[in-house]
Amino acid sequence: MISARTAADLRARIREWRARGNRIAFVPTMGNLHAGHLRLVRHARAVADRVVASIFVNPMQFGPGEDFASYPRTLEADSAALMEADADLLFIPDIDVVYPRGPEQMTRVEVPALGNILCGASRPGHFSGVTTVVAKLFNLVQPDTAVFGEKDYQQLVIIRRMVEDLNMPVSIEGVATVREPDGLAMSSRNGYLQAGERASAPRLYQLLCELRDRVVAGERDYAAVERATLEALARAGFEPDYVSIRRAADLAPPGHADQALRVLAAARLGVTRLIDNIHISAG
Fold it and tell me: Fewer CB atoms < 10 Å away: N or C end of the chain?
């Protein structure tokens, strides 16, 4: 596996692969990789000739008081894992490569409607930071396909909308959430959980499954089942942010005729903010 730290080195390798007619898939990450990230890399390997992964802890998507400074940085272990997963190139840009004038002075890319709801309402500016850095990385890597996990489903929908709106020639592929044996969605931030919190954390997924089962069984008072799930999370020791049933395609509030739905949730357990979502077929 090759490593590149500058735009010039990255582009030189991309030009070489393009000259050979290679199809390129891209997996952007912030590092501290787990099995979920590696599944994305393996999916990318299955759909392309060359796989580029990036590690960049993006300051633009962290709000005041969030964990940018303490976010785990585990480059040596990540590099070994990516090599094992058969990535071809690891792009590890410094901040001045991505934001040469600093994050505050950079042109921003926003998806306003989708970026201001759900997690966007609780983390103002977060998705603007995500779409800006992803657009920048797409311009640097120029992939045919980019692969994202469904664990952050709102992010996946937003990136798809950005690509559509800006006519970017990139196919966006989503990969199902990878879970621990007890159902907890794998996340780089799970390491923040204390032992007792880790034991309680799978309750989030369990409650979303219970909500799904009620909808599949015919419940259509979505506000009531959302409220019941919020109350159950609070009883389980969480500080819930939201539980929301949305139309899967565009995160709009669903009508009774909509069948492909997604329930999304965010809740804090101790200092750790957990997010999760699952598909619901209401037909």
Answer: C
